[in-house]
Amino acid sequence: MSRFIVNGGQELSGAVGVSGSKNAALAVLAATILSESRCEIDNVPDILDVRSFLKILEIFGARINFSDHRVNVDATDLRSVSVPRDLAQRLRGSILTAGPMLARFGRAAMVQPGGDAIGQRPIDVHLDGFRKLGGRITEKEQIEIEGKLTGTRVVLPVTSVTGTENLIMAATAAQGTTEIRMAATEPHVQDLCHFLVAMGAVIDGIGTPILRISGPSKLHGAQYRICSDEIEAVTFCAAAAATKGEMTITGVDLAHLDAPLALLERMNVVFTAAGNMIHILKPKRPYRGVKITTGVYPQLLTDEQPLFGVLATQVVGDTTIHDWIYEGRQGYLLALKQMGAEVTFGDKNHATISGPTDLHGTEIRTPDLRAGASILIGSLVARGRSVIYNAEIIDRGYEKLDERLNSLGARIERVD
Ligand code: EPU
């Protein structure tokens, strides 16, 4: 276990580049299963979740080369075996192998995936969707899905990101047209669709909640560049604004950041955004409290909420948070409270943060990845020394976040 020891109280200033998107990388790497030839994927973040996912592909029989943010995957000699329990439980994204395995081999097997402890994370949307496409499902020690797929209309009862991604990948092998309604539209879902099109799939409605996939398509290898990580861009914006520094964040895709940038503006954070850059400037007026409600893209993502929550400790007045997507997303608020934040909890999906407060250092374990980023920002703002005991949770989704923040003036020491 590594820990971060943080000496807070510094303004963060300078320039930093945003990595490729974690959640797009996992979906695109899953889609390489669909091709019987080589794929070359660029801008892949070197994070623990990607490393775990590549391990799963290797267990399936893929030949992998990962260096300098480029992954070459040769999935010619794959076999359909189930994802080992320890990897499935380490990584929620492991469920993304089910759709492409079913498409390529007519069979997929897996155990219930694990991942961040942020609330109930059922997979009924995935399984019901596979059933509608003609998959037969048996659930014993592991979940097995088998069958030849036929295109049909699937209305998702809940807009699930990985559920949408799994069904799109399965549908590329289905006979006829599959229409997925209430589909997720997140940038990572769009990225997956663009990659599949580059592989030869036929998909209409990319970026909308109604997707039509015409199949079956024999998919070939492709080259692809993963989109920039919008959640990481928001992480750096929040770190700059909360420490009241000046930061240039490069490599962003502004088209994916409407909701978070609108919220920063409402909070009185001063910034300019043009091309592929955001400049966060020093505040001209006190930050002010806002209402934060998460939603399905293009609204504010649940993963972005904790990054605004820590910024809310530095604003004048109340910020209300309503995150209906997960009922376990308040762990970071307990941590911030331990650091001196004034938080009033409603039910599991509601909280109010009253500011501004002076935060002080503390010793803590982070409950999940985005909570970890939020707590790390809190400890940069705080006076004194903080220890975050399980830094690996942050490494799951951020590449060398400690080093990159240190290059902006933070004082974070990693102790293994
Ligand atoms: N849901 C169901 N049934 C299902 C699936 C989901 O009821 O079968 C519900 C969930 O309980 C939740 C909502 O639907 O209330 C949305 O969950 P979703 O399925 O969209 O989440 P996910 O696909 O498991 C992805 C990201 C998460 C991100 C969520 C929401 C990946 C690998 N993970 O998870 O990312 O929080 O979408 O945007 O893409 C992270 O990056 O830190 C992370 C946790």
Notable traits:
24% strand; binds uridine-diphosphate-2(N-acetylglucosaminyl) butyric acid; 4-stranded mixed sheet; 416 residues; 14 helices; UDP-n-acetylglucosamine1-carboxyvinyl-transferase, Chain; alpha+beta
Structure description:
The chain has 416 residues and is α+β, with helices and mostly antiparallel strands. The protein has 2 domains: 3-19 and 228-415, Alpha-beta prism (UDP-n-acetylglucosamine1-carboxyvinyl-transferase, Chain), CATH 3.65.10.10; 22-225, UDP-n-acetylglucosamine1-carboxyvinyl-transferase, Chain. It is 31% helix and 24% strand. A hairpin with a 3-residue loop joins β7 and β8 (143-146). α11 (331-338) runs parallel beside α12 (369-381). The chain binds uridine-diphosphate-2(N-acetylglucosaminyl) butyric acid.
Q: CATH superfamily of the largest domain, called what? A: Enolpyruvate transferase domain
Low-confidence stretches: none
Note the gap between the termini.
6 Å
Q: What molecules are bound to this protein?
A: uridine-diphosphate-2(N-acetylglucosaminyl) butyric acid
Q: Which term fits the overall shape?
A: globular
Q: Report strand order across the widest sheet.
A: 21-22-1-23
The helix fraction, in percent, is: 25-40%
CATH architecture of the largest domain: Alpha-beta prism
Q: What is the SS-derived class?
A: alpha+beta
Query: CATH top level of the largest domain?
Result: Alpha Beta
**What percentage of amino acids are in beta strands?**
15-25%
Total strands: the figure is: 23
Please name the CATH topology of the largest domain: UDP-n-acetylglucosamine1-carboxyvinyl-transferase, Chain
